[in-house]
Write a structure and sequence with these properties.
18 helices, alpha/beta, 15 strands
């Protein structure tokens, strides 16, 4: 269930970290200090290569006006509140669970990417949807919202390294190779005598609108971390195999939970012929896993779990299914951000819970439940690099521009792409989580 921000979680001010505690000393700086340089910025994705097609590939010097860089936090907060009051019901602000607290306190709804896209639909009177998240989330909100609504991303440099690991050209090329291996026409994959397709594409919500549209055109579907199992069941009712992108770990963890042997879930590396597989391996495959991952969740290890249990005997461990399979296997539970929240809510005072997901969500849960010991498995503070780019300065700027009748940083998905993507998203909407 998506949460109204005002009723959600206790606010702790920022990460409040020393450089020695963080993965990058630049985290102490404001995002505009590194927005002018190509890359994802400091944080979990800092070492990820930046493909040329991404929103982070080019520098954006001077994107945020100087005024908003100089204003103190208190004045930025007051300007945001004043702008929201002026815009009233013409505006809805959405904040992802992984956003910093200084942003969450100003949002009307807090949730994961799909929850927030649906939350926007509950405000049809809102002319402006300001999405405090990353690029693919704003695209999804634009696809699902009405034509009269405008979706705004406060900082256009807020992309997603995982989503960028599967681009449209690479997926199209892979699809042609895969279909050729199965003797199918890539433009019109036909079912066999039993009515089953040789392959069907499934994309994780954390992907571009173009890849959601790809799935829509090819009979495929979008999944979330909460309904991935339902989606794979839907896919296996229609096809012998699934191409799952961009996150290998969610695909592998979900497939194995459904009884698919790991040897029948080969990796597809788009930089190698046949994805690095033999024809025999492809024939035996049930799930082809794209070579992608989330840099936040790849940081968690079995050793961290072992240390948490050694330090706190009886501690419970819950991790996100984007974590590597050994980490999921070693944990007591795995689930989406919403599932993690429910797990903590169902715990008892005095419980110790170690969590493997983004630090802002973990810190906020610890503040909400002070009678429990809640901490992040990773002792090094390393937030989602791209989520970190949304700062109150950007939010104040886009809101005050709206007050003046100007729209900046609008995210608009082209009509044909939006139409195909909506097909895949509507299929996802019908796939209720178990």
């Amino acid at each position: 269930m998506v949460l109204p921000a005002a009723d959600s979680l206790s606010v702790t001010r920022g990460l409040s970290i020393a450089p020695s505690q963080s993965c990058n000393s630049q985290l102490a700086e404001a995002p505009w200090e590194f927005d002018a340089a190509p890359g994802y910025g400091p944080g979990s994705s800092q070492a990820d290569p930046v493909p040329a097609h991404t929103v982070n590939a080019e520098a954006r010097p001077g994107q945020l006006p100087e005024l908003y860089r100089r204003l103190p936090e208190e004045e930025l907060a007051e300007r945001i509140r004043a702008a929201k009051a002026h815009l009233g019901e013409r505006l809805v602000t959405l904040g992802h669970f992984y956003q910093r607290d200084e942003i969450v306190e100003h949002t009307d709804f807090v949730g994961d990417s799909f929850q927030l896209a649906k939350a926007a639909l509950t405000k049809p009177e809102a002319e402006h949807i300001v999405f405090c998240g990353v690029h693919f989330m704003a695209e999804t909100a634009d696809i699902l919202s009405s034509n009269s609504q405008k979706v705004i991303l406060p900082n256009l440099a807020a992309g997603c390294s995982m989503a960028d690991m599967a681009d449209e050209d690479s997926v199209e090329t892979a699809w042609e190779e895969i279909c050729e291996a199965y003797g199918a026409d890539p433009e019109n994959v036909a079912p066999d005598e039993g009515g089953m397709l040789p392959i069907l594409p499934v994309t994780y919500m954390n992907s571009s609108a173009a890849l959601k549209a790809f799935c829509g055109r090819h009979g495929g579907i979008v999944c979330t971390s909460s309904n991935a199992e339902t989606v794979l069941e839907w896919a296996f009712e229609r096809a012998h195999r699934v191409l799952f992108f961009p996150d290998q770990h969610l695909g592998r963890n979900t497939g194995r939970a459904m009884g698919v042997p790991t040897e029948r879930m080969p990796m597809w590396n788009p930089r190698r012929p046949l994805g690095g597989n033999t024809h025999a391996e492809l024939q035996d495959a049930e799930v082809l896993l794209w070579h992608g991952f989330c840099s936040v969740h790849r940081r968690f290890t079995v050793a961290q779990i072992e240390k948490a249990r050694a330090d706190y005997p009886g501690a419970k461990v819950i991790v996100h299914p984007e974590c590597p399979m050994p980490v999921v296997d070693a944990a007591d539970a795995a689930g989406s951000t919403e599932a993690i929240r429910h797990y903590v809510a169902a715990s008892s005072p005095g419980d110790v819970i170690a969590i493997g997901t983004e630090i802002n969500l973990v810190s906020r849960l610890a503040a909400e439940y002070p009678d429990r010991t809640i901490f992040c498995l990773d002792p090094v503070v390393c937030p989602c690099s791209t989520m970190y780019r949304i700062h109150p300065g950007y939010l104040a700027w886009v809101l005050e521009e709206l007050c003046e009748g100007r729209t900046v940083n609008q995210i608009s998905v082209p009509g044909p792409v939006a139409a195909d993507a909506k097909i895949a998203l509507d299929r996802m909407l019908a796939a209720q989580p178990k």
